[in-house]
Amino acid sequence: MLEKIKSTLSKEQKELYMREALKEAKKAKDKAEIPIGAIVVLDGEIIGRGYNLREESQDATSHAEMTAIKNACKKKDSWRLENAQLFVTLEPCAMCSGAMILARVDEVYYGAGDPKGGTAGTFMNLLQDERFNHVAYVENGILEDECREILQNFFRKLRMNKKS
Amino acid sequence: MLEKIKSTLSKEQKELYMREALKEAKKAKDKAEIPIGAIVVLDGEIIGRGYNLREESQDATSHAEMTAIKNACKKKDSWRLENAQLFVTLEPCAMCSGAMILARVDEVYYGAGDPKGGTAGTFMNLLQDERFNHVAYVENGILEDECREILQNFFRKLRMNKKS
Questions:
Q1: Could you tell me which chain A residue has the CA closest to the CA of B105?
Q2: What is the ipTM of this complex?
Q3: Is A54 touching B (CB cutoff 8 A)?
Q4: What does the pLDDT read at residue B3?
Q5: Chain-chain contact of A60 with B97 (C-beta, under 8 angstroms)
Q6: Would the pLDDT of A4 be above 90?
């Protein structure tokens, strides 16, 4: 299987979609959840949205990407998201990368890298491991500063609140 | 972080719980889904059950382990499944291994290995990668023949039906 080496989107499109993922991250922030957001795009239409909801749901699997993928599958009435693009503000973990492989998401874009558990380039690159039956195009650094800042501000406030 | 090297269960307990996972796999088979089943055990009680439901749900993430983990989180009202054991008839994929890491499942037992996508020893071993913030005890080969046969019979019938 050949690794996909080209994006189908322009820089403007990538930034526009990452802004939508950031909107989702802000919804998480408003609920005092770690602010991570994701969207799934197909043929220029946003078909899935999601944000991290671990604390409210008390469900370990309720990451932004999982909700966005589930919503996209529902919208398409298909577990196959071929030709779809996924945008997420933080580099995906193993669970979410695994879900993207299963759903056959074609292109994955993320903002900030995750030194603690990133599996799309940092620790490992599950999305481009040719031993799996699907390989995605992966691009990082889309609106990286904004995606990182929303997280840093969240954790800074958390530490301040703990101190006071 | 030290790798956990001991199981807390006896051979009889492991087989008893894998039979419960096999019961879940049979529920999938009865719905013409690929027969994979899983359960989550905590303090000797089964707190989550699940079976593969990809076709009926048309949701790429609806694997047996994910449903079992979600149900266990719901039952415990917590995303943390520390001290829990997970039994699954087939070696988990990257998504499901990732979910077990996130939920901090302590011990993972599976029946048959998955040469196509297994991430608990076959392709890689995500569950025992010390770069993640959680490492599980992993044991394979519990009721291996039964776990493999239910899958082999399913695919054999599928091929026969396609031919006829």
A1: A60
A2: 0.95
A3: yes
A4: 54
A5: no
A6: no
pLDDT digits (tens, 9 = 90+) for A5-40: 689 999 999 999 999 999 999 999 999 999 999 999
Residues of A with catalytic function: 65
One-letter amino acid of A110:
Y
**pLDDT (tens digit per residue) in A120-156:** 999 999 999 999 999 999 999 999 999 999 999 999 9
Say whether residue B74 is in contact with chain A using an 8 A CB cutoff.
yes
Q: Is the pLDDT of residue B138 over 90?
A: yes
**Which among B130, B78, B124 is positioned nearest to B101, based on CA atoms?**
B130
Best of A1, A56, A61 to disrupt the B interface by mutation (most B CBs within 10 Å)? Answer: A61
pLDDT score recorded for residue A18: 98
CB contact under 8 A, A95 and B93: no
Distance of CA B103 to the CA centre of its chain: 14
Any CB–CB contact under 8 A between A69 and chain B?
yes
Q: Can you say whether the dihedral through the CA atoms of B21, B23, B28, B29 is positive or negative?
A: positive
Residues 6+ apart with CB under 8 A from B13: none
Instruction: Give all strands of the β-sheet with B85-90 in edge-to-edge order.
Output: B45-51, B37-42, B85-90, B107-112, B137-139
The pTM for the full model equals 0.96
Torsion, CA A54, CA A59, CA A65, CA A71, rounded to 10:
-120
* Residue from the list B96, B97, B133 with its beta carbon closest to the beta carbon of A116: B133
